[in-house]
Amino acid sequence: MTTPHFIRSLIPRAIRRYVRERNVLNAPPKLSREEAQGYWTAPPDEKNFPDRYAYGDTKRSDELVRFADRLVSKEAAILEIGCNAGRNLNHLHRSGFTNLSAIEISPAAVAFFAKAFPEAAKAADVKVGSFEDILPTYPDRRFDLLFSMAVMMHIHPASTFLFSHMVRVSRIVLAIEDERESTSTRHFGRNYRDVFEPLGTKQILELPVAGFPNAVARAFACPD
Questions:
Q1: CA-CA distance, 49 to 118, in Å (whole number)?
Q2: In whole angstroms, what separates CA 24 from the centre of its chain?
Q3: What is the domain extent for residue 185?
């Protein structure tokens, strides 16, 4: 056990929860939907530049492939909500998934995807724009699997209508998300079982995610 983890283990969980809740209460106000969309269209800070998404956190993408293999066939129609620079789509493509689509709000991220993973980018149908504008345009049951990795948690409360569209356009929804409340102005903590089951889905998978220690993967079967 490393020193930081050892020190953390000595702090009672109740105290850690109290500190986290106090931090959340004193956090700056959340962005408006328009401000959040503006941020993700062209992130100003280096930690959210496309190259960081393209080449980092590959264990998470390995986990995504593992979950997808459990849920659907290689020929399944798959939609990623927020593909950024395409690391997840590239992992799926390299693993034999052949019918890939995505929505991404950042033109720069999509352009970087084409440079970083040209074969996957050529194979995937990526629409550039906001979820609010694009997701409602898909027909019912267009996809066998719709997934998000650390993106649903950035959907603004003013856009929660998107969750019903996710259920409408897919047969299975896979949410790989950090469900905790956060001090980030762009993170909206939710338990996704509480989000999707009232929409008529049934949770069929709940697992931890290697490489993403605070996340949980939940899959939901959508009603016919």
A1: 18
A2: 22
A3: 33-221
Region 5-16 average pLDDT:
52
- Please give the model's pTM, rounded to 2 decimal places: 0.87
153 burial via Cβ count (<10 Å: 0-12, 13-18, 19+): buried
Q: 166 with 146: CB under 8 angstroms?
A: yes
Residue type, 72: V
CATH at residue 174 = 3.40.50.150
Residue 16 has pLDDT above 50, yes or no: no
Residue 45: per-residue pLDDT: 85
Please state, in angstroms and rounded to a whole number, the distance separating the CA atoms of residues 129 and 81. Answer: 11
Sign of CA dihedral 34, 107, 95, 62: negative
By residue count, the chain amounts to: 224
CA distance 171 to 148: 14
Identity at 125, one-letter amino acid code: D
Percentages helix, strand, coil for the chain (3-state, rounded to 5) are 50, 20, 30
